[in-house]
Each structure stands twice: as C-alpha cells, then as structure tokens.
Amino acid sequence: MKKKVFARLFALCLSMVFISAGCGQTVIEDYATNEGYEKAEQGTSDTEVEKNTVMQQGIPKEDIKIGVLHLSDPAEGSGYTYTHDLGIQGMQENLGLQDNQIIRKNNVDDTDKDAVKTALQEFVDEGCNIIFSTSWGYMDATAEMAEKYPDVYFSHGSGYKSNGKNFNNYFGRIYQARYLSGIVAGMNTKTDKIGYVAAQGLDNSEVTGGIDAFAIGVAEVNPNAKIYVSVTHKWFDPEAEEKASKKLLDTGCDVMAQHCDTSYPQTLAQEHGVYGIGYNSDMSKETPDSCLCSVLWNWSAYYTSAVQSIIDGTWDGSDYYGGYADGIVEVTDPAAFSAEGTAEKVDEAKAEILSGACNVFDGILETNTGETVGEEGKTLDDATITGGINWYYKNVEVLE
Questions:
Q1: CA atoms 233, 237, 242, 245: torsion sign
Q2: Which residues pair with 228 in a beta bridge?
Q3: Do 41 and 91 meet the contact criterion of CB atoms below 8 Å apart?
Q4: Which region, left, alpha or beta, applies to residue 356 given φ > 0 means left and ψ of -120 to 50 means alpha?
Q5: Coarse DSSP helix, strand, coil percentages of the chain, rounded to the nearest 5 percent
Q6: In angstroms, rounded to a whole number, what is the distance separating the alpha carbons of residues 121 and 111?
Q7: pLDDT digits (tens, 9 = 90+) for 354-379
Q8: Contact in structure between 169 and 322 (CB atoms under 8 Å)
Q9: Mean pLDDT for each consecutive 10-residue tract of the chain (400 residues)?
Q10: What is the pLDDT of residues 62-99, one digit of tens each?
C-alpha cells in the first residue's frame, strides 16, 4: 500500500515545554523534539483531496476528547507503550489540552479482538473524537469500528490498513535509525556475534525490515559479524523476551539489540558485561554502563500534527510515514565508551540519509538463503518496505 506523509504546516507561538512522566523519572531526552509536525506539505491531486477529505469543519480545542489504546502499562518501563505515552503527553503539552480530555486504556491484549472492540466501544461511548490504537494487533478491530462510526476519527499505529476517510495508519521509517544503530553495533562487537530479540518472525515486514536494515548497517562496517535473532512471536511478553535474551547471551553475543517491548535485552546485557542497543526510548537511563545508543520514536511529532488537523478541520485521512528528516525517528549519540570513530561514522551515514544519498535498501541485496532482492541503481519502494520484506539479510541467522 502506498504511504503518504500526513503532514501539516503549522507553528506554535509558544515555546515547547517539556513535562515529566511516571513519578518524575523521565529525562528530557525521552521527550519528542517536536520537529516532526513541521514538514513540507505533500502535493495531492484534486481527486485525492476530494476522496480523502472528511468532516472539515474542525472541532474546538476545548471539545476535543482523545482515546489511547495501550498494549501494556506505560509505567512498566522504557519500551513501546511507554514511548507512545510520552508522545501523547508531548501532544497534550504542545496543544494545551486538559487531563480530562485524554482517556487511556492500558493492558489491552492485542490478540483478544473482543477485548479490543470493547475498549474501542467504550472510547466512543465516552465521547472521544479521535482514538489512537497503538499496536499492530489492534488493526482489524479498529478498521471495523471506523466503519461503524464514520463521525469518529480512528488512527492506527503500525500495520497497514486504512480507509482514506476517518481511519488512517501511522508509522515511521524506523529502518533508517535501525541502520545507523547497526553501524554502532558492528563497530563495537568483539566476538562478531550480535543478538536481536524480535517480537515477530519472517512474515512481519515491520520487524523483519528493521532487522535487515540493522544488519545492512552492521555489514557496512564489519563484514565478519553475524546477527543472531531470537523470536518471541508476541508484541509484548516479558517472560519470552527475558528467555530470548538469555539464549542470545548464552550464544556469545556481546551486543544486544531488540524489537520488543521490555528492556530485558538491555538490562541483561549490562548484567553480563556486554553492550546493548536500546529501542523505543533512551535506555541508557536504565543501563548507563552498557547502552551504546538507542533507536528512538518521537511519537509526539505525529500526535501533535494529527490532533491539530482535527482542530483545524484539515484532516484528510492520509496515512503517515515520516522519517529521520521529519523528526519522528532518531538514534541517540553513541556512548562515550564506544569504539574510536563510531560517532564520526554514524554522523557520516546520517548525513547521507538526510541528503537522500542513502535509502538503506539500495541496490541488489543478498538474502541469507543466497537469493537477491532489488535492482542496481534503485531502492525498494515503500510498499515493499512496509509489506514485502519477508527475507533476512545475508548476515542474519535465526535461532530456533
């Protein structure tokens, strides 16, 4: 499915104020840079605008009510749900909304469709104008509820479904930040064994694409290194994530990366005296002695833009797929204890991404089965990246 950046040009007249979350433990680096909503307007044809435009009268800011569906509890750690909630907090502060304008439902299992639909129905019954469902598994239930309630906005994070009207999809080019973190991992492994805890297997392009982007970054600086992947088959499963992390560490991995919710790969890496690559938020606050860098989501960039568009009456149902240049994805600076030259190499690669010289999935790519993907002089398109990466890069091995 073709992704279009759901972008709006607007500026806030007040300086951005950063607030803390969860018992005052949040550090400012956890917050969004708030650059993500100041993006260039993307051109659309008159036909597209007519098709995508709904409810353009706008909703007064004081009448906005927002529902947020979370997979786990934001207070539980530094992972996926925590980072989404930071984005919601950033949006609230940016737009000056009251606490009672935001309703959260936590710990809603995305494999239980009935529970998801019940939670979404409760949001509607409580008067929410826009509902953000943040996990892949919420997709089908969100799609159904959007058809049932055409006057409510539904915005689903990850996945791929949307209707171009009151139901859109939002995600970002996290593979760009994954690629940069792979450079860090490749330059700092001593055993040439790098671990990666993955929430889903080969059939999920979101996870697999991230692994491959990371692996491409590793190979660029260290062709001898291998990435060992352990799959949990659930988006959130603390016990499985801990078990997978231990398996990788027992294999001899001395850098631990992840696409999973908890911080187990990082905390166990520090306990074992090896390095980690954090994900979702800056995990150096939990593992300061081992975290080489963290791959970050700046969700407030999108949440601010989406809610503002509803207030302004400019929502058009477009999907959002921002990247590094939009401020929604990022990688933290490599730690001071990183190998010499790491920061410089990352800066060089980042500049190539921002200039468009590097799109990560460029040229002919060799898979771990010996097949090839892509064409010389071309890069994979968004539809393939978001829905068609069902292969692993040549230096990836999955542990059974």
A1: positive
A2: 195, 397
A3: no
A4: left
A5: 40, 20, 45
A6: 17
A7: 999 999 999 999 999 999 999 999 99
A8: no
A9: 35 29 30 35 34 66 97 86 94 97 97 97 98 96 98 94 96 97 98 98 96 98 98 94 98 97 95 97 95 96 96 96 93 98 98 97 98 97 94 96
A10: 999 999 999 999 987 778 899 999 999 999 999 999 99
CA distance 203 to 386: 11
In three-state form (DSSP H/G/I as H, E/B as E, the rest C), the secondary structure along 309-377 is HHHHCCCCCCCEEECHHHCCEEECCCCCCCCCCHHHHHHHHHHHHHHCCCCCCECCEEECCCCEECCCC
Q: Sort 189 into a burial class: Cβ within 10 Å, 0-12 / 13-18 / 19+.
A: buried
Structure tokens at 22: 């969860």
Q: Cβ-count burial of 317 within 10 angstroms (0-12 exposed, 13-18 middle, 19+ buried)?
A: buried
**Cα–Cα–Cα angle for 59, 60, 62, nearest 5°?**
125
**Which residue, among 74, 219, 194, has the nearest Cα to 134 in the 3D structure?**
74
CB 171 within 8 A of CB 192: no
DSSP 107: -
The whole-model pTM stands at 0.84
| Of 208, 258, 259, residue with least CA distance to 373 | 208
Q: Which residues pair with 278 in a beta bridge?
A: 294
Q: Which amino acid belongs to residue 6?
A: F
Q: Which residues pair with 365 in a beta bridge?
A: 373
N- to C-terminal Cα separation, the chain: 32
Alpha helix stretches (DSSP H) within the chain: 46-52, 80-95, 113-125, 139-148, 174-188, 205-221, 238-250, 264-271, 300-312, 342-355, 382-387
How many C-beta atoms surround the C-beta of residue 148 within 10 A? Answer: 12
Paired tokens of 61: 């800011």
Extract the tokens encoding 249. Answer: 């560490």
Going by their DSSP bridges, the two strands 275-280 and 320-322 should be labelled as: unpaired
Degrees (nearest 5) of the Cα angle 60, 82, 148? Answer: 50
Helices marked H in 113-173 — which ranges?
113-125, 139-148
Gap between the Cα atoms of 299 and 328, Å rounded: 6
CA gap 387, 162 in Å, rounded:
14
N residues, the chain = 400
Angle, helix 139-148 to helix 113-125, in steps of 10 degrees: 40
